[in-house]
Amino acid sequence: MPHGYRFLLVTEAALEPRPRIEPHPRFRDWLFTTERTGVLEELGLPIGAPRATTCGSG
To answer: Is the pLDDT of residue 57 over 70?
Structure first.
């Protein structure tokens, strides 16, 4: 990821790590962060399992 940033899609259940930014048919919000998953979880943010995506799926 550029400059150490990770991309997490914001869904109604959790933040979902994604390998790249792609449109999602339902969710439009993203979190860009350099923090580790453990730090985000300590802050109370639910993290889902990483999912590979293709445009328009999800």
So the answer is: no
